[in-house]
Write a structure and sequence with these properties.
alpha+beta; three-stranded antiparallel beta sheet; globular; about 90 residues
Length: about 90
């Protein structure tokens, strides 16, 4: 399932926003990297180290049954996300 997903801190509501074509595999990869302290997003890794993985929620924000072509991505309204992406 292609989707936009969020990893949200339940304590302060800050979040990491990502997209993937396979949410289950991507979630598994995030969890493995976070548990081994090797996540590519240093801010997210530090937040997980500080608050504990149990205080983070993984959820899909928007799912797509058909993958949008790159030329049509701008038709998706990302205005609610852009400001908050850096809030991890």
């Amino acid at each position: 399932m292609t989707c936009i997903y969020i990893i949200q801190n339940k304590i302060n509501n800050k979040f990491y926003l990502g997209s993937t074509v396979n949410f289950i595999n991507r979630r598994r990869t995030h969890l493995r990297e976070l548990k081994s302290n090797k996540h590519h997003c240093i801010a997210l890794q530090r937040a997980v180290n500080k608050y504990g993985l149990i205080n983070f929620e993984f959820r899909t924000e928007r799912a797509f049954t058909i993958v949008p072509r790159l030329s049509s991505v701008d038709t998706i309204d990302f205005s609610n996300y852009i400001v908050r992406i850096r809030a991890v």
